[in-house]
Amino acid sequence: MLTESEINRVLLVAAHPDDADFSAAGTVALFVDRGVQVTYLLVTDGDAGGNERTLDNSGMAELRRAEQTAAAKAVGVTDVRFLGYSDGLVVPSLDLRRDIARVIRQVRPDLVITHHPDRNYQFIAPSHPDHRAVGGSTLDAVYPDARNPYAFPELAKDEGLEAWTVREVWLSGGSTPDHWVDITDAIDRKLTALQSHVSQVSHVEGFADFVRSRFAGWAERAGFGEGRYAEGFQVVPTA
Question: What pTM was estimated for this model as a whole?
Fold first, then answer.
């Protein structure tokens, strides 16, 4: 597993606005505190999002892009990119792999964080089809696409993007996390990031208490003890 000193650039690939903040905003805030460069790549604009109060979701894509930009800023991330795929319709494809590989070659991250590609039978929410499609495609983009100079040769020939090897991937939302990050010092920033997604969470009664309770439970599972908060990941070495 990579040491702290070996992580200088991180790319977080998520399906929708707010996914990064639910899964890893605390961890991201701690990375930024250490001077790590973090980039968010959102595959969709979340245009199918909303709630019972916003059934007419015209303008939702623009709103959710703005909310994600504000949420990222709350944890110190200013490089936020969107691919513009249709929310709810993401499937594994060569186009998606190429688009993610392109950004990997642009950012040249040591670490990629993304969704777990498998269905979680213990907790269904992380298993949205878009999440699984993005997680699987990101893993394919990491290996073999981004590192293989013969994969998507147009990226090198036409765009000057040479091959890049990501050293490690952290998967969120799976049922078997094996790496826990103590985010106690960043829980307030994580909550601020999540609350930036006004269209998605402002109607949820007791949302802040829910967030604190959920991530406190993960801290207990991690063995950090009472009064702590944690995010969990499954580490995938790529060597």
Answer: 0.96
Peptide linkage before 144 cis (omega within 30 of 0): yes
pLDDT along the chain (239 residues), means of 10: 97 98 98 98 90 60 95 98 96 98 98 97 92 98 98 98 98 97 98 96 95 97 96 96
CA distances to 120, 153, 168, 217 from 161, rounded to whole Å, are: 35, 9, 20, 42
The reply to whether omega before 177 is within 30° of 0 (cis) is no
Give CA 121 to chain center in angstroms.
20
**Overall fold of domain 4-237:** Rossmann fold (3.40.50)
Q: Strand order in 9-14's β-sheet?
A: 79-85, 37-44, 9-14, 111-115, 168-172, 230-237, 179-182
